[in-house]
From TrEMBL, chain A:
Gene3D superfamilies: P-loop containing nucleotide triphosphate hydrolases (3.40.50.300). This is Sugar ABC transporter ATP-binding protein. It is a peripheral membrane protein. Its main location: membrane. InterPro entries: AAA+_ATPase, ABC_carbohydrate_import_ATPase, ABC_transporter-like_ATP-bd, ABC_transporter-like_CS, P-loop_NTPase. GO terms for molecular function: ATP binding; ATP hydrolysis activity. It comes from Pseudooceanicola atlanticus. Residues 5-240, 256-499 form the ABC transporter domain.
UniProtKB/TrEMBL annotation, chain B:
Its main location: membrane. GO terms for molecular function: transmembrane transporter activity. Keywords: Cell membrane, Membrane, Transmembrane, Transmembrane helix. PANTHER family: ABC TRANSPORTER PERMEASE PROTEIN (PTHR43370:SF2), SUGAR ABC TRANSPORTER INTEGRAL MEMBRANE PROTEIN-RELATED (PTHR43370). This is ABC transporter permease. The keyword Transmembrane helix applies. The keyword Cell membrane applies. The chain crosses the membrane at residues 12-32, 39-59, 65-86, 98-117, 129-148, 155-175, 195-221, 233-260, 276-295. It comes from the Bacteria. It is a multi-pass membrane protein.
TrEMBL record, chain C:
The chain crosses the membrane at residues 12-41, 61-79, 91-109, 115-135, 147-165, 198-215, 280-312, 324-346. GO terms for molecular function: transmembrane transporter activity. InterPro entries: ABC_transp_permease. This is ABC transporter permease. PANTHER family: ABC TRANSPORTER, PERMEASE PROTEIN, GUANOSINE ABC TRANSPORTER PERMEASE PROTEIN NUPP. It is found in: Cell membrane. Keywords: Cell membrane, Membrane, Transmembrane, Transmembrane helix. It is a multi-pass membrane protein. It comes from Pseudooceanicola atlanticus. Coiled coil: none annotated. One of its GO terms (cellular component) is plasma membrane. The lineage of its organism: Bacteria, Pseudomonadati, Pseudomonadota, Alphaproteobacteria, Rhodobacterales.
Length: 513, 313, 350
């Protein structure tokens, strides 16, 4: 076995934060190594150092025995390291060929050799089974195709070592399977791979060796064949975290009902003929692969836009006007999908963030003047009641960690006593401890008799919290199945759009009631 | 009606179109380059003013006309560097920085001009570029004098359109520039530093703006006076949107514009009873109309006005 | 080398930023003065003396401060909401023209002075608003960037003024000079200081600064406009009506710039010409940035600019340094201020 890559005692600090501490890691030819760790464990930083985006404070990187100069991505590329970023580094307005060709020729050339480039691209795409049209505009490609372009870009640069940062984050289960099959085939052609992940099942099924990173340090290294999901989970988290148990539901009256809702895409997929019912005291989970209409559905129920057609009934009443203030006044609490972009305004004070969505109410303003004392008191209450650490009433909210920001959002929503709760990806990007806290709050709200609409891409979360589960596929909702009947295969089918089994279960369930 | 025909069929009118278009072509190409690499450059108005002043001053103090153009380009590039420094590595607001550059560059130009020419009631003149008849071609009736009896900088501007179109679409550098305007992360991932690429491209674009300004004092007029740029820079910013960020269309836009300008100038003299100010408003209003028409169709460079910092998304 | 955002930008740094910026600009301008062959220290001394050294100097400086406060406020409120109103110059002119046009109605001249003044001020503000609502409408409806449209409208506005004062509103008694009919006596602002040009407009400007401060920091409107500027997506999620908020901001911003024009013509000049404003609208942008968009800070920044402009006039006569040095300094201070704000917010790491 030849050692193609060696990272030796890498340390990287950002201010007071140590992102990587004394991390050593190696990769052999033809091997697939999984770099496993939670969000914020330092995986991406480590790979950015390897790729020359960051300079390490200490330590060295060696590719095939030769040391890489720090901080030069060009050198990494020349040495045969290719990186496939989690957020695709593609230009949507340019063609596939243009995206691949950028930076592959000397800049000061009078004419770029498109024909040769195209030939090489076509050849690579054939050799590695990565089918894509070189002249297609990237904005017209599917997510899976975009990823193929990313991999082709690396291969075009004659990469022998490929690093993939969370490659399956945006793929369907089927796409992910085929990706890993392709990757395995690549190793047979002499490539060596590192992929970054926090998903245990894919690490178990696709890697030869696992390196576990926690808080910037390597805590363990295992041959995949000699470890188990359970062991890896504990290594990754560092302790056993008990997520709260879901007590049995006692569904009451229908609080929220959608009848044949349709809405053109607002930065996401469109909705077509969406009908659902949400009862008091139950959680309805919506699963699905990213980009199938979750964002649009969450936005619709949250009051960001009224439906193009169909009716939305709150508490059995058709809503005359559907916008944010009316939705909130009607008792809808909203946990946004993206805390930083949508949920908070980083440069405004904590108290302003806490009351902005209800600033129109008598509680917080009178004749257009903000009741600052009341607003600050309410914020103080949230900070105390929800244990928002590091927050001060007047401090700017962007200083809070993701978990604490989410606590503040939960506080502002739940303290208003909503009867309906829309939670979109409520634990995305949080660590285990924070996730448990969020789940506890959601279960509490349900216990109080609120109806919870949980829209999430995290299957474990949906199974743990929901009473009934639907999948969203291309803007349509699948039949609902009770959570007890959910298993990986059935949910996979539902997300892939095969609803026959789910239909049978729904019918059976309705019969039993 | 026959008056209109007279104007439209006169050689002088069409000759003027290219002349009026030249600074707009250069300025628009400059803005286009900057925006293609992802940076709005509202410094153009001031940079053109500075180019006009420095070009004039160079020639006034004994320099060759081409040295004047070169000085204007260098001056433009210098202000472009300042703009780039503030907006690219520091990532400051491109709007406000650009306006700051405009205010600074124009007041600085006036200051230097007044230092050089402290007391003159009428601005001193220089010997400007003379029309250069292209042999044979300029003898073609009508087309000849219109297209082939222009000043040298006009020919240069036309050549630059072709150079830029080729450069942006046919060379690796042009691809990297377009890519940076779409997604600087992608360029960085391919091992090209988008920061330096942006700085360099902004400097090149600003040099073009400076040359556009110099054309005003060294070919269109023969002297410098404050406020002579008269919003031409802003019009160029609008023209880039009209041109959908393509050099060929930028030429078309500039010509269309110049056509209206030349036409209204001549119309003023023959149409009675319409205040001249209405004619003068026309270019500005047309620019706004162009913006409205194109706003929805425009395929704006995706990373325009988005500062790039490594590791921040 | 990279820049890292400071967690807690200290108060001291925030206050030091504009001072440092102005000092840096003064140093650069000082170099330019030195290159021109004069002693910069002496030049600055003369500038201060010109601005504050006499009763006339002080009254001139304060007269000049008045419109600058208002155009500075106009830019500051707009920029807070990320509405790029660069059209202050045009709004200023049309505001002034509105007063002159209003004054042509005989009934206005016959009104008691306070009422005539009030109506004329309102007329100026309303016209300023309208001129900004046009580009805002284009942005909301067609997605046209308001920076370029407001800039272009400045030229249209000045040409329109020129059209009117050479046509329908031309003063027949002005010996053929292009200037508008004078505003009626009833609409003239009272003087604050006898035998000077200082007028009650200064008080209006100061009151407006306080009003704007109150609006921004204490009202629902202020909170919403800030939210809309800082993060439109999150603001929309929180139910901030973005369109309506921007319209309100545009009314305030355009109104303030229009008011500046109205006050200038009612307090200083008495009639409208096309050189009524030595770039007051554009200077407002600099002033707003120097004040870090703080309405109270605008007063200080406007005073600084006025000192430069008034002082440089008298300094240039004494030292034969072009008075454009004032414009250079003020524009330079905008750029240095941008850097200073940045340095106050970020730290440099290697």
């Amino acid at each position: 076995m030849t050692r193609v890559l060696e990272l030796d005692s890498i340390t990287k600090r950002f201010g007071h934060v140590t992102a990587n501490e004394d991390v050593s890691l190696h990769l052999d030819r033809g091997e697939i190594v999984a770099l496993l760790g939670e969000n914020g464990a330092g995986k991406t930083t480590l790979m950015s150092i390897l790729f020359g985006h960051y300079t390490a404070d200490e330590g060295t990187v060696r590719v095939e025995g030769a040391e890489l100069p720090p901080g030069k991505s060009r050198a990494a590329i020349r040495a045969g390291v290719g990186m496939v970023h989690q957020h695709f580094a593609l230009a949507p307005n340019l063609t596939v060929l243009e995206n691949v060709l950028t930076g592959t020729e000397p800049l000061w050339k009078f004419r770029s050799n498109r024909a040769a480039g195209r030939a090489k691209l076509v050849e690579l795409s054939r050799k590695f089974g990565l089918k894509v049209d070189p002249d297609a505009r990237v904005s017209d490609l599917s997510v899976g195709e975009c990823q193929r372009v990313e991999i082709l870009k690396a291969l075009y640069n004659d990469a022998r070592i490929l690093i993939l940062d969370e490659p399956t984050a945006v793929l369907t289960a089927q796409e992910a399977d085929s990706l890993f099959a392709t990757l395995r085939q690549m190793t047979e052609n002499g490539l060596s791979l590192i992929f970054i992940s926090h998903k245990l099942h894919e690490v178990m099924s696709a890697s030869d060796r696992v390196v576990v990173l926690r808080r910037g340090r390597v805590v363990a290294e295992r041959r995949t064949a000699e470890t188990s999901k359970e062991e890896l989970a504990e290594l990754m988290v560092g302790r056993k975290v008990q997520r709260p148990e879901r007590p049995p539901a006692t569904p009451g009256k229908v609080l929220l009902e959608g009848v044949d809702l349709a809405l053109g895409g607002k930065g996401g997929a469109s909705l077509h003929g969406v009908s659902f019912r949400l009862r008091a005291g139950e959680t309805l989970g919506i699963i699905g692969v990213s980009g199938n209409g979750q964002t649009t559905l969450a936005g619709l129920v949250s009051g960001l836009y009224p439906p193009d057609s169909g009716t939305l009934l709150i508490d059995g009443q058709e809503v005359p006007r559907h916008d944010v203030p009316h939705a909130i006044a009607a008792g809808i609490g909203r946990i946004p999908e993206d805390r930083n972009a949508e949920g908070t305004i980083g440069d405004m004070a904590t108290w302003e963030n806490a009351v902005l969505e209800r600033i129109w109410s008598e509680d917080f303003s009178a004749r257009g003047v903000v009741k600052r004392a009341a607003a600050r008191a309410a914020t103080e209450e949230i900070i105390k009641g929800y244990d928002v650490r590091g927050a001060s009433v007047d401090g700017r909210i962007r200083l809070l960690s993701g978990g604490n920001m989410q606590k503040l959002i939960l506080g502002r929503v739940l303290n208003a006593g909503p009867s309906i709760l829309v939670a979109a990806q409520p634990s995305r990007g949080l660590d285990e401890g924070a996730i448990a806290g969020v789940h506890e709050r959601l279960l509490e709200a349900r216990g109080r008799g609120a109806g919870v609409l949980l829209i999430s891409e995290d299957l474990d979360e949906v199974i743990a919290l929901s009473d009934r589960i639907r999948a969203i596929v291309n803007g349509r909702l699948s039949p609902a199945i009770p959570a007890e009947r959910a298993d990986a295969r059935l949910l996979g089918l539902m997300m892939a759009g095969d609803w026959t089994a789910a239909e049978a279960i729904e019918a059976e369930d309705a019969h039993a009631l | 009606m026959s008056v209109l025909l007279d104007i439209l069929s006169s050689v002088g009118m069409w000759e003027a179109v290219l002349r009026i278009a030249t600074p707009l072509i250069l300025g628009t190409l400059g803005v286009l380059l900057c925006e293609r690499v992802g940076v709005l450059n509202l410094g153009i108005e001031g940079i053109m003013t500075f180019g006009a002043m420095v070009g004039w001053l160079t020639v006034y103090s004994g320099g060759d006309l081409w040295v004047g153009i070169l000085a204007a380009a260098a001056g433009g590039a210098a202000f472009g560097f300042l703009h780039a420094l503030l907006t690219v590595p520091l990532g400051l607001s491109q709007h406000v920085t650009g306006l700051g550059i405009t205010l600074f560059a124009s007041s600085f130009s006036y200051y230097v001009f007044r230092l050089a020419v402290p007391t003159a009631s009428s601005p001193p003149t220089v010997e400007p570029f003379r029309p250069l008849a292209v042999p044979v071609l300029s003898d073609i009736p009508f087309i000849g004098p219109v297209l082939f009896n222009q000043t040298a900088p006009t020919y240069m501007a036309l050549i630059l359109v072709a150079v830029l179109a080729w450069g942006l679409y046919r060379t690796p550098l042009g691809l990297a520039i377009r890519m940076t305007g779409e997604n600087p992360h992608a360029v960085d991932a391919q091992g090209i530093d988008p920061i330096w690429l942006r700085i360099g491209t902004i400097m090149a674009g600003s040099a073009l703006m400076g040359m556009g300004g110099a054309f005003l004092t060294l070919a269109a007029f023969n002297s410098f006076f404050p406020t002579m740029v008269q919003g031409r820079g802003w019009i160029c910013v609008a023209l880039v949107v009209f041109a959908l960020w393509r050099p060929g269309r930028a030429l078309l836009g500039a010509l269309l514009f110049a056509f209206f300008d030349a036409f209204q100038l001549r119309l003023q003299t023959v149409v009675e009873g319409v205040p001249y100010q209405l004619f003068l408003m026309l270019p500005y209003i047309l620019s706004i109309v162009a913006l409205i028409v194109m706003a929805r169709r425009a395929r704006v460079p995706q990373a325009l006005m988005q500062p790039y910092r490594r590791g921040e998304r | 080398m990279r820049f890292e955002r400071r967690d807690h930008p200290s108060r001291a740094l925030t206050i030091a930023a504009p001072i440092g910026a102005v000092l840096a600009a003064l140093i650069v301008a000082g170099l330019l003065i030195a290159i021109a062959g004069a002693n910069p220290i002496r030049a600055y001394g003369l500038i201060l003396k010109g601005a504050f050294g006499s009763r006339l100097g002080i009254s001139e400086t304060l007269t000049r401060t008045t419109p600058l406060i208002l155009t500075g406020l106009a830019a500051a409120v707009a920029f807070r909401a990320r509405l790029w109103n660069i059209g202050g110059e045009g709004q200023f002119y049309l505001g002034a023209l509105a007063v002159a046009a209003f004054g042509m109605i005989p009934a206005i001249g016959a009104l008691p002075a306070p009422l005539a003044i009030l109506l004329c001020l309102i007329a100026g503000a309303v016209v300023g608003m309208i001129l900004l609502l046009v580009p805002l409408g284009l942005r909301l409806k067609f997605g046209v960037d308001e920076v370029v449209t407001t800039l272009l409208l400045n030229f249209v506005a000045v040409l329109f003024v020129s059209l009117m004062i050479e046509g329908a509103m031309k003063d027949p008694l002005a010996f053929g000079w292009p200037q508008s009919v004078p505003v009626p006596e009833a609409a003239e602002l009272p003087k604050l200081l006898a035998r000077s040009r200082l007028h009650a407009g200064l008080l209006i400007a100061l009151v407006m600064a306080v009003v704007v401060w109150w609006l921004q920091s204490r009202t629902v409107f202020g909170m919403r406009s800030r939210a809309a500027g800082l993060n439109p997506r999150a603001a929309a999620f929180a139910g901030v009506p973005l369109g309506r908020t921007l319209i309100a901001v545009a009314c305030l911003s355009g109104g303030l710039a229009g008011l500046a024009g109205a006050i200038e013509v009612m307090g200083v000049k008495g009639y409208v010409t096309t050189d009524l404003s030595p770039n007051y609208g554009y200077s407002g942008i600099v002033i707003a940035m120097l004040a870090n968009l703080n309405p109270i800070g605008v007063i200080a920044a406007a005073l600084f600019s006025a000192v430069m402009f008034v002082g440089a006039d008298s300094m240039s006569r004494a030292l034969s340094i072009p008075s454009y040095i004032a414009d250079v300094t003020v524009a330079m201070s905008l750029l240095t201020m941008l850097v200073a704000i940045f340095l106050a917010q970020y730290r440099i790491r290697r």
